[in-house]
Design a protein that fits this description.
The complex is a heterodimer of chains A (about 900) and B (about 300). Chain A has about 900 residues and is of the alpha+beta class. Chain B contains 12 helices and 10 strands. Chain B has helices at about 20-25, 60-65, 65-70, 75-80, 85-90, 95-100, 125, 145-155, 170-175, 250-260, 265-275, 285-305; strands at about 10-15, 30-35, 45, 50-55, 160, 190-195, 205-210, 220-230, 235-240, 250. Classes of the chains: A alpha+beta (about 900), B alpha+beta (about 300).
């Protein structure tokens, strides 16, 4: 029998030639710090040291590890933390933390070897980028990782102990943080889903008996809807639970059924053609998914086209007529164009995963979810259980970005299987599932017309958006153009184009980035034609006070003032600078409750929210600590458990604005309670009076609910919904009534200035630097806010340059279902990013803070396209701006 | 499952960096034979004439890090350090790199039939072939994935197998007309080592790939270039390209446009344009020819600069 030494201990290796090292480490040895993500050697999350060299354990046969010494993340800082781990904590080089163990293992090996050769010299960005090029971080924590690795190599973290800015950072850099995929109950079964291989079919005679009869299989359930129709490749048909994945896979292959192939249609262009096969007949339209966070408003259906949704138009007919007249008169200021955006996959590194367990009539669900409380409510409703019988737990979540906001198939299937199996069941999607059926930001086609008046004001805007929503509806893009750049008239129409592709889902600022890609390039083009500075034109056309301050900041940047014109450049490499604006709604969740207690002389804050990397644990800890004059680590924060008081979902940038106000109210209540119960007052002149009082206090508890905001008094700060007239008010009311989301006053805003270098020979864009100005009120956790701001830019750069789900145009198979074909940004693609926080504008919110996550990614793609226009004189109308598209545009051809 | 070839005869496994993923997904099944390192299959040996022989189980990282390889064969060293990721390069072997299977997304999907899995047609040809060939040499349109093969082609390397004493890259991989396989080895034939000729006096060599990001991406087009430039003239030039055809290609027209010519801007630009000679791009792959020309242009400019 073969053995290896792992973290200093001897371990036996299985004889199975197909056993991979990662599976032995995670499943046999329960060293779950090592993560399995891509399974293809691309992302590096599974990196371990084999005889000191970092290798991908997801591809290394276990038997190849015989007689080697293997070190996992658990062995890196086993006695004392490695300098790299401390540096990662100090520089907040992580968000969700799922990629962190892999990065830590590689960076520790790099740092050790660097210091052996080069002492405390500091490696360059290029050297760090090349060394870590086998790792991917979807949150985009690269800025912190650069800084952390450089600092650790420089010897800045030798021996140093400190409290990190992110309260759970230690668990994440040591690999001890448990995610849903790491949960293992006794007797736990593995669930696997049988999925349709046809884009459109009617399934009959589904026979699960052959699967159930197989040894090791504990349950098999149908997942078909009542009509028995599957509408995309990957649509679930059935699920099986078995003692291990291999057995479950064999069992789903044994399931028998009859599939009647139905006519199918794939993608935006085909599905719009008259007479194309219809995906949802009238009776089945409710089965369509939802790509937005709000409930769909009624809209007309015409075949596979749903729309127009045009309620946010304003004098639409006038806008149309003015644009038509300007076109006829060949008005040189009329900007018209068609823009296209690609399909962006969330690519959470932790897949959608659930572990369901029944204990009698009580159901415990570990889920990789953005909303433990809401998912608990949905489970209780679906299974007709009391809220007290269902508990949803998510201690740590490896990314979500909008795709994990609601009750998913991975959860209902796991529950169904656990009930039949009478055993705990885990379902964890593989990478192919994660990149094909868990949702995406729909591709779009946007037709825009923008007409300035003779006086140089904005007269009319027309925007028609077609979204490639797959088996889903409710895209909202054009409507978002109502809430920025007021005009005399706007014609705004949204269409969903439904086809036999997996359903889209909300994704970080749903609708915002594609809308901005068209609108902000049209504004840029108008500025060029009007011979006005693009920032000055935005300042003229966009009266929002938060953005007015950001425009002043941006106009003062050296990189902006020193930009060149395309005519000044002729060589192979050309540099350009672009600007763009973004906004998002300020949303908060009514009913959120924070419980604050003194427990055994320590402060404990609790709410049923969860931290997908945005930093809510830290925001709560910082807020409480600051009010009591304590350090954040003095406060224990309990989240990630639906048994706690109702907390917000981590979506719609709502977390910070939902938790800080009730926390501040609870602090005041608890202070009063502590003082009333104090047996003696702190000594006069004590510099930590609350520390003494809390330590001496009996156990006490208070709770506060998120209050309504006060009336804004600052000029120009209004509810954007009220600005949008009666339809806006109705939309706001619906969002609160049906989605439990309140639209607050004031508009979170961002302005980005991006400098690029274009290689005109290889169609390659190198982003040199990004300046992101963000107005989201007071910053509650500065290091983490910075991480979110830079991560949003990096995700935006991926959207602009690399990311596109690719499908087969006939079969509807998702082809880019692995991480080598779905390309997210790596560390070496990350430019220097400077973050400017403008902290005014939200004084009417208790605490003054609103969320960052969405607004900070909206303007990136148009800012980048505007920079390419400035560098080359060519406007790129389709993202991602891959080499194939850029080289074709530079050569004056149409890309395929 | 769609194909008969999935139950084909035993497959050799070196480090498994390609095979493990195929077996996990179900694209490849059947018995495995793990290759054990022997003295002639691992490490680099040097002849008296300064020629290297590299064992087939030598890791890509070892080749990239070998200072003697870097000095004698900089194009091979640069190719080795330019492929995959550091953690893959530590495991992956030279022989495995040459004998790896296609990265085509249709081939890698176990639910889609294709020529390489016993199917009757190439679904990429009429489907989404964004990353496919621009030189259409056979029924399958997937580009050959081996970066090392293109580099070795530029060096006229001889491949020693368990059955043959020394074959060319052309003999190893075929001419691209057989769409069912990625190499022309017999079922029980394994690569043992790679023999290189001694570098030419004064030779310089470079490697570059065009990709969308900075690192860790399969090449859209890649080129290995060797040159001897004396008195401002291309005395010797060798250009091979990968990522554009079912097998690595020598860019013979380019070479002819440079051989014996002055290493000046006009000659170089004209020769770079010849990189696309004989190309037959698919509807979605015309861009690869622009990139190929750009990479050749880039390398020639650098080789011409003393």
């Amino acid at each position: 029998m073969n053995t290896m030494t792992i973290n200093g201990r001897l371990a036996t290796l299985p004889d199975d030639p197909d056993a991979l090292l990662v599976d032995v480490i995670r499943d046999d040895l329960d060293l779950t710090g090592t993560k399995l993500v891509c399974g293809a050697g691309v992302c590096g999350a599974c990196t371990v040291l084999v005889d000191g060299a970092p290798v991908v354990s997801c591809l290394m046969p276990a038997r190849a590890a015989a007689n080697t010494a293997v070190t996992t993340v658990e062995g890196i800082g086993a006695t004392d933390l490695h300098a790299v781990q401390k540096a990662f904590m100090a520089h907040d080089a992580l968000q969700c933390g799922f990629c962190t163990p892999g990065f830590v293992v590689e960076a520790a090996a790099f740092c050790d070897s660097w210091r052996k050769d080069k002492g405390t010299a500091i490696p360059s960005r290029e050297e760090i980028g090349a060394a870590l090029s086998g790792h991917l971080c979807r949150c985009g924590a690269y800025e912190g990782i650069f800084n952390a690795v450089a600092a650790a190599c420089a010897g800045q973290f030798d021996g140093l102990e400190f409290s990190p800015p992110r309260v759970e950072a230690r668990a994440k850099v040591t690999g001890s943080a448990k995610y849903t995929v790491d949960i293992r109950h006794d007797g736990q079964q593995e669930g696997v889903i049988l999925r349709s291989q046809l884009a459109h079919a009617r399934i009959t005679d589904l026979d699960l008996a052959p699967a159930r009869a197989m040894p090791g299989v504990s349950a098999a359930v149908s997942l078909l809807g009542d009509d028995g129709i599957v509408r995309f490749v990957g649509d679930p048909i059935a699920a099986v639970a078995a003692k291990d994945r291999k057995t479950a896979e064999a069992a789903i292959a044994a399931i028998r059924m009859t599939s009647e192939r139905l006519p199918s249609v794939i993608g935006l262009d085909a599905a719009r053609k008259p007479g194309s096969p219809v995906v949802f007949e009238k009776s089945s339209r409710k089965k369509a998914g939802n790509v937005s966070e709000g409930t769909p408003a009624p809209a007309a259906w015409n075949g596979n086209v749903r729309g127009p949704s045009a309620a946010f138009s304003q004098k639409a007919r006038k806008a149309r007529n003015w644009v038509a007249a300007a076109r006829e008169q060949q008005n040189p200021w009329l900007v018209e164009g068609t823009f296209r955006t690609g399909t962006q996959s969330h690519t959470s590194l932790e897949p959608h995963a659930t572990v369901a367990r029944f204990d009698g009539d009580r159901l415990t669900v570990h889920a990789s979810t953005q909303s433990v409380f809401h998912v608990m409510e949905l489970i209780a409703k679906r299974y007709k259980l009391g809220h007290d019988k269902v508990r949803v737990i998510a201690d740590h979540i490896g990314g979500g970005f909008g795709s994990k906001g609601t009750l998913g198939m991975e959860t209902t299937a796991a529950i169904d299987l656990a009930r039949e199996a009478e055993a705990p069941v885990r379902i964890a999607y593989d990478r192919h599932e994660e990149l094909s059926v868990t949702g995406y930001r729909p591709a779009t086609e946007l037709k825009i017309a923008l007409l300035p008046s003779e006086q140089g004001d904005l007269k009319a805007l027309s925007l028609t958006a077609y979204a490639d929503t797959g088996a889903a509806t409710n895209s909202t893009l054009a409507a978002l153009a109502r809430l920025i750049y007021p005009a005399e008239a706007k014609e705004l129409a949204d269409y969903d184009v439904i086809s036999n592709l997996p359903p889209g889902a909300p994704f970080r600022g749903p609708g915002g980035p594609p809308m901005a890609f068209a609108l902000e390039q049209a504004i840029d083009e108008a500025a060029l034609r009007m011979k006005v500075d693009p920032i000055a034109l935005r300042k003229r056309w966009d009266p929002n006070p938060n953005r007015q301050r950001l425009y002043d900041w941006a106009a003062g940047l050296d990189v902006w003032r020193n930009r060149k014109t395309p005519a000044e450049q002729t060589g192979r490499y050309r540099r350009g600078v672009g600007v763009a604006t973004g906004y998002w709604l300020y949303l908060w969740q009514p009913g959120v409750k924070i419980e604050l207690k003194v427990e055994g002389g320590r402060l404990v804050a609790s709410t049923a929210t969860q931290d997908i990397g945005q930093g809510s644990r830290t925001v709560i800890a910082n807020t409480v600590a600051q009010e009591f004059g304590l350090e954040p680590h003095d406060v224990e924060v309990r989240i990630g458990d639906s048994n706690l008081p109702e907390g917000p979902g981590a979506g719609g940038s709502r977390s910070t604005a939902s938790v800080i106000p009730p926390t501040l109210l609870a602090v005041q209540k608890l202070k009063d309670a502590i003082e009333q119960n104090a047996k003696r007052k702190p000594l006069p002149g004590s510099n930590a009076p609350w520390r003494e009082l809390i330590a001496a206090s009996p156990d006490l508890g208070v709770a506060s609910v998120r209050p309504e905001d006060s009336k804004p008094t600052a000029p120009g700060i209004r509810s954007p919904m009220k600005e949008a007239g009666i339809m806006g008010m109705i939309f706001g009311w619906m969002l609160r009534r049906f989605s439990n989301l309140a639209v607050g006053a004031g508009v979170p805003s961002s302005v980005q200035v991006i400098e690029v270098e274009v290689d005109t020979w290889l169609g390659h864009v190198r982003v040199l630097n990004v300046h992101t100005g963000i107005a989201v009120g007071k910053i509650a956790a500065p290091a983490l806010a910075r991480s979110q701001a830079t991560g949003s830019v990096i995700q935006g750069l991926g959207y602009a340059l690399y990311e596109a789900r690719e499908t087969d145009p006939r079969s509807g198979d998702v082809l880019s279902a692995g991480m080598e074909d779905y390309r997210i940004p790596g560390i070496a693609d990350t430019p220097a990013i400077s973050v400017h926080f403008d902290e005014a504008g939200f004084d009417h919110v208790l605490g003054g803070s609103v969320g960052i996550g969405e607004v900070a990614t909206v303007p990136t793609s148009p800012a980048l396209a505007n920079a390419i226009r400035n560098a080359t004189g060519i406007r790129l109308t389709e993202i991602p701006i891959r080499p194939d598209r850029l080289i074709s545009a530079l050569k004056g051809r149409t890309a395929a | 499952m769609t194909s008969a070839s999935m139950t084909a005869s035993a497959e050799f496994r070196a480090a498994g960096t390609d095979l493990s993923e195929r077996r996990r997904s179900g694209v490849s099944r059947g018995p495995l034979i793990d290759l054990a390192a022997a003295p002639d299959t691992i490490g680099v040996t040097w002849g008296a004439d300064g020629a290297a022989t590299i064992g087939a189980l030598t890791s890509i990282a070892a080749i990239a890090a070998d200072p003697r390889i870097a000095a004698a064969y900089p194009g091979i060293a640069a190719s080795a350090s330019g492929l995959a990721t550091p953690q893959v390069r530590h495991l992956a072997t030279l022989g495995g790199n040459l004998a790896q299977r296609s990265r085509c997304w249709y081939f890698r999907d176990p639910h889609i039939a294709c020529l390489k899995k016993g199917g009757s047609e190439c679904p990429a040809r009429t489907g989404n072939h964004l990353y496919s060939v621009a030189f259409d040499l056979g029924p399958c349109v997937a580009p050959h994935p081996s970066t090392m093969a293109a580099a070795l082609l530029a060096h006229d390397a001889r491949i020693v197998t368990s059955q043959r004493p020394g074959i060319s890259i052309g003999e190893l991989l075929g001419d691209g007309s057989n769409g069912t396989s990625d190499h022309a080895l017999a079922a029980d034939e394994m690569i043992r080592s790679v023999e290189l000729s001694a570098p030419l006096p004064g030779e310089r060599a470079l490697y570059k790939r065009a990709i969308s990001r900075s690192h860790a991406e399969w090449p859209l087009a890649e080129v290995c270039a060797r040159a001897v430039v004396t008195s401002g003239t291309f005395q010797f030039i060798r250009l091979t390209a990968g990522g554009i055809a079912p097998v690595p290609l020598r860019l013979a027209a380019c070479e002819a446009g440079l051989q014996g010519k002055p290493a000046g801007a006009a000659v170089i630009a004209e020769a770079a344009r010849l990189a696309r000679s004989g190309a037959s791009p698919l509807p979605m792959t015309g861009y690869k020819l622009d990139l190929l020309e750009g990479v050749v242009h880039d390398l020639l400019e650098r080789l011409a600069t003393p």
